[in-house]
């Protein structure tokens, strides 16, 4: 399996609850290498741009408000089969449906405030990583 990259955010609920370190520990212990990472805060406009794919969905306004409600961590991760393996590690969107031991099962508060983001394809991982990081900020590992 080829090594590739995915993109993640530790969302405002998890960051605000002081769970960033524990989540990053789970990510590293699952074999993901950090390629880039920063603490930042999205404006409502930037959150809207990032989640533009959901523009027509009824939860879009709430999602943009939530994602701009506090600091986040944005990070690019590298591993074999990174996109699919990271989606497995974080678990289902709704923590009520997430498998035991997944990040969302452990840390998510609700369907809306669900602790972490994970890219859903190689293509989106590249787009999302470049939304937050310049090429200079992406370390080759
Ligand atoms: P993400 O993009 O954040 O990794 O989450 P995902 O792929 O598992 O889920 P997605 O369908 O892309 O939804 C993006 C985020 O929107 C919020 N959401 N709210 N109220 C609702 O029905 C609802 N559905 C989704 C969640 O924060 C979800 O992660
Ligand atoms: Mg998604």
UniProtKB/TrEMBL annotation:
Keywords: ATP-binding, Cytoplasm, Kinase, Magnesium, Metal-binding, Nucleotide metabolism, Nucleotide-binding, Phosphoprotein, Transferase. Transmembrane segments: none annotated. One of its GO terms (cellular component) is cytoplasm. SUPFAM superfamilies: Nucleoside diphosphate kinase, NDK. Its cofactor is Mg(2+). It catalyses: a ribonucleoside 5'-diphosphate + ATP = a ribonucleoside 5'-triphosphate + ADP; a 2'-deoxyribonucleoside 5'-diphosphate + ATP = a 2'-deoxyribonucleoside 5'-triphosphate + ADP. Residues 3-140 form the Nucleoside diphosphate kinase-like domain. Its EC number is 2.7.4.6. Signal peptide: none annotated. One of its GO terms (biological process) is UTP biosynthetic process. NCBIfam families: PRK00668.1, PRK14545.1. This is Nucleoside diphosphate kinase. It comes from Lunatimonas lonarensis. The lineage of its organism: Bacteria, Pseudomonadati, Bacteroidota, Cytophagia, Cytophagales.
